[in-house]
C-alpha cells in the first residue's frame, strides 16, 4: 500500500491574494454576522430618516448612511477574504473607529449639532457600545489573520 501524497501549501503559481485562512471563519464568522446586522440597521435607519425627516437633522442622517456604507464594505471584505481584502477591511475598521470617536465626542461636546442620534452618537450607546467595540475587535482579528 502506498501512502497518500502530501500537497505543499503555497506551491509555485498560487495567488498571493488567497487567504492563509478564511477571514469569515471562526471568530471572523461572528464579525461577518455583526457587521451584516449593523449594515442593515444603519442603512434602514438612515433611509427612513432621510425620507421622512431629512430637514430635522441632515448631518446625523448622512452620518448614519456613511456608517452603513462602511459596515457594508467591511462585511464584503471579510466574506471575500484574501490579503487585499484583509488590508482594505483593516483600513476601513480604523476609519470606522475614528468616526465613532469623533462623532461620539462631538455629540457629547455639542449635543445641539445632533438633534437626532446617529449610529455613532455617544460612542454607540444606543447600540450597546457595539459601534466602538466592533472595530477594535475586528482590527485585532484582522491583524492576527495576517500572521497566519
UniProtKB/TrEMBL annotation:
Record key words, sorted: Membrane, Transmembrane, Transmembrane helix
Region spans: Disordered: 1-20
Transmembrane annotation, as ranges: 30-52, 58-79, 88-109, 124-142
Domain of life, source organism: Bacteria
Protein name, per record: Integral membrane protein
Provenance organism: Streptomyces netropsis (Streptoverticillium netropsis)
Lineage: Bacteria, Bacillati, Actinomycetota, Actinomycetes, Kitasatosporales
Amino acid at each position: 500500500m502506498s501512502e497518500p501524497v502530501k500537497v505543499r501549501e503555497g506551491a509555485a503559481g498560487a495567488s498571493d491574494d488567497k487567504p492563509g485562512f478564511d477571514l469569515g471563519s471562526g471568530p471572523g464568522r461572528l464579525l461577518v454576522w455583526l457587521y451584516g446586522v449593523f449594515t442593515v440597521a444603519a442603512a434602514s435607519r438612515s433611509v427612513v430618516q432621510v425620507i421622512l425627516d431629512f430637514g430635522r437633522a441632515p448631518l446625523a442622517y448622512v452620518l448614519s448612511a456613511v456608517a452603513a456604507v462602511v459596515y457594508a464594505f467591511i462585511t464584503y471584505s471579510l466574506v471575500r477574504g484574501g490579503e487585499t481584502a484583509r488590508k482594505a477591511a483593516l483600513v476601513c475598521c480604523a476609519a470606522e473607529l475614528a468616526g465613532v470617536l469623533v462623532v461620539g465626542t462631538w455629540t457629547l461636546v455639542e449635543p445641539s449639532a445632533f438633534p437626532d442620534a446617529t449610529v455613532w452618537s455617544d460612542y454607540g450607546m444606543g447600540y450597546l457600545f457595539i459601534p466602538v467595540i466592533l472595530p477594535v475587535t475586528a482590527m485585532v482579528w484582522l491583524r492576527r489573520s495576517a500572521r497566519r
